[in-house]
Specification:
This protein is α/β, with parallel strands linked by helices and 438 residues long. It has two domains: 210 residues, NAD(P)-binding Rossmann-like Domain (Rossmann fold); 190 residues, 3-Layer(aba) Sandwich (Rossmann fold). 37% of the residues lie in helices and 13% in strands. The chain contains 13 helices and 14 strands. A seven-stranded parallel sheet has the order 3-2-1-4-5-7-6, with helices on both faces. The longest helix has 32 residues. The radius of gyration is 24 Å and the shape is globular. The mean pLDDT is 93.
Length: 438
């Protein structure tokens, strides 16, 4: 595939690092509908911090083009879709970005082009949702081993059409060790021949290697269960935290003791948000219900994890009452709004559940996060971030909630002997330095 030209559709946490990796060996066009995103990348900066400024400039030096014009991707041969796949307020998959990306690609799709989806979806989405859009807009046929119109085609009667593949993203935002080329890649294609071609394509830049799945549906299913598995494991330890809280036992002490066994899995309690673990299970449960099965374990885990923010807020309020604070009007500082530590990603952050619950109790809540973009937080959650905080917090607040384990928070002066309540969601502090933790 050395003569292929690549278009990466969607330049967020997934698409940009992937485009950078491919730019080392191929001609790449990075496409995104957001003009502001294109402008900042052209200037050599990535606000997600997945790529350094030097890496963005390296991609540009390699010939990579950033654009939001379809005309600039019409001569590409491979289209890789890395747009978000969120859920709506009813926790139902929202495939709008995926559908719109498919419509855009359909306008420029040519015979023999390959469209590879990386966005997390439920099994069957690529061929049941995206392919019909590609066919309708492009006027071309989908070439697949399972498509009666194309699977038995002979060379002289060959149907002109396009191919598809699915290679699930496995990016871990903020992780500078497990970067895109160092994570083994699952690949798949609509025919055995094209699957091998797609696999070789990814193998040319993924140093960790590849795994060729037998079908697109298998690759889709593999991705969605990766995060469902983590979600269930975290739900288990979150439920343990709820039980041990009633028993007066420190959960982290229990996990440390249990963790001395060689096969005990090292999961910790906490808020479960982000663009993957807190979302992907709903894609699988949606499809399960569609085919007549009610998934009890997965949904039970989701209920536990979705309610942890309420539990934290209630614990903080009880601790304030025990220290003699009046809850209504109490000043509370929440440290961190991103969904994980040392990362600017605020998508689906469940810290907001803690904030909203405390506000419902009548608390005045301030939020500080040196990693989050203030404009994004204001737009997404309606919260004005503090620009700075005093190192000596006890003089200003009745309670402080350590919500995200940013490195910057580890040096703060948190004295649990003061009247101020300190609650540590992430277990980043020694237990004798805080009043409570999960």
């Amino acid at each position: 595939m050395g003569n292929k030209k690549i278009a990466v559709i969607g330049l967020g946490y997934v698409g940009l690092p992937l485009a950078h990796a491919f730019s080392t060996k191929y001609d790449v066009v990075g496409f995104d509908i957001a003009q502001w995103r294109i402008d900042e990348l052209r200037q050599g900066h990535d606000r997600t911090l997945e790529l350094s400024d030097a890496q963005v400039k390296e991609a540009i030096a390699n010939g990579m083009v950033f654009t939001n014009w379809l005309d600039e991707i019409k001569d590409c041969n491979v289209y890789i879709v890395t747009v978000p796949t969120p859920i709506d307020e009813h926790k139902t998959p929202d495939l709008t970005p995926l559908k719109k990306a498919s419509e855009s690609i359909g306008k420029v799709l040519k015979a023999d082009d390959i469209v590879i989806y990386e966005s997390t979806v439920y099994p069957g989405t690529t061929e049941e949702v995206c392919v019909p859009i590609l066919e309708k807009v492009s006027g071309l046929k989908y070439i697949s081993s399972e498509n009666p119109a194309t699977k038995n085609q002979k060379p002289k009667t060959r149907v002109e059409g396009f191919y598809c593949g699915y290679s699930p993203e496995r990016i871990n935002p903020g992780d500078k060790e497990h970067t895109v080329t160092k994570i083994l890649k699952v690949t798949s294609g609509s025919t055995p021949e094209i699957a091998k071609e797609i696999d070789a394509f990814y193998a040319s830049v993924i140093t960790a290697g590849t795994h060729l799945a037998p079908s697109i549906r298998v690759a889709e299913a593999a991705k969605v269960i990766e995060n469902a598995q983590r979600d269930i494991n975290i739900a288990f330890v979150n439920e343990l935290a709820l039980i041990f809280d009633k028993l007066g036992i420190d959960t982290h002490d229990v996990l440390a003791a249990a963790g001395t066994k060689w096969n005990f899995l090292p999961f910790k309690p906490g808020l479960v948000g982000g663009h993957c673990i807190g979302v992907d299970p709903y894609y699988l449960t949606y499809k399960a219900k569609e085919v007549g099965y009610h998934p009890e374990v997965i949904l039970s885990g989701r209920r536990i994890n979705d309610n942890m923010g309420i539990h934290v807020a209630n614990k903080v309020v009880k601790l304030m009452i025990h220290k003699g604070h009046k809850v209504k009007g109490a000043k509370v500082l929440v440290l961190g709004i991103t969904f994980k530590e040392n990362c600017p990603d605020i998508r689906n952050s469940r810290v907001i559940d803690v904030i909203r619950e405390l506000q419902d109790f009548g608390c005045e809540v301030d939020v500080y996060d040196p990693w989050a973009d203030p404009e994004e937080v204001k737009h997404e959650y309606g919260i004005e971030l503090l620009k700075t905080i005093d190192q000596r917090l006890s003089t200003n607040y009745d309670a402080v909630v350590l919500a995200v384990a940013h490195n910057e928070f580890k040096t703060l002066d948190l004295n649990s002997d003061d009247d101020m309540v300190v609650f540590d969601i992430k277990g980043m502090m020694d237990k004798d330095r805080v009043d409570g933790r999960l």
